[in-house]
Description:
Blueprint: H1 3-13, E1 18-22, E2 25-30, E3 35-43, E4 46-55, H2 61-74, E5 80-84, E6 87-95, H3 101-122
Antiparallel strand pairs: 1-2, 2-3, 3-4, 4-6, 5-6
Amino acid sequence: MTSTKxxxxxxxxxxxxxxxxxxxxxxxxxxxxxxxxxxxxVEEPLAIVRVVVMPTPTKNREEFFExxxxxxxxxxxxxxxxxxxxxxxxxxxxxxxxxxxxxxxxSLDAIGLALAQHYPILSKYRDKGASGQKSxxxxxxxxx
Length: 144
């Protein structure tokens, strides 16, 4: 089964709202499931699930990064917080060849749960008036 068919089939079976960006990339926008602006990308041998959480703050960075590292160690079932450019992301990598529906769903569920539980804590560090991408958790656009 091609990567398009396999992952697209999983998204359909899970009843997730998504759009295909290209043959190996999908954008999930499903607020009912707590998944906004989540990108799923197949780069064999991996399937990568990633979402921009927020812009990296400019103040209280040491405290902020300490919280992220503690969350990585204690609160995340799947994936980890990371930095990508000027953004904090939540990313999970899965072995594509052996990926099944249950593992994919567990990854998406864990990301949705982490965003719901952690964003209220992390957003306290958000710079006032910060420009950046649409936050995965607050549904608002900050700047352009």
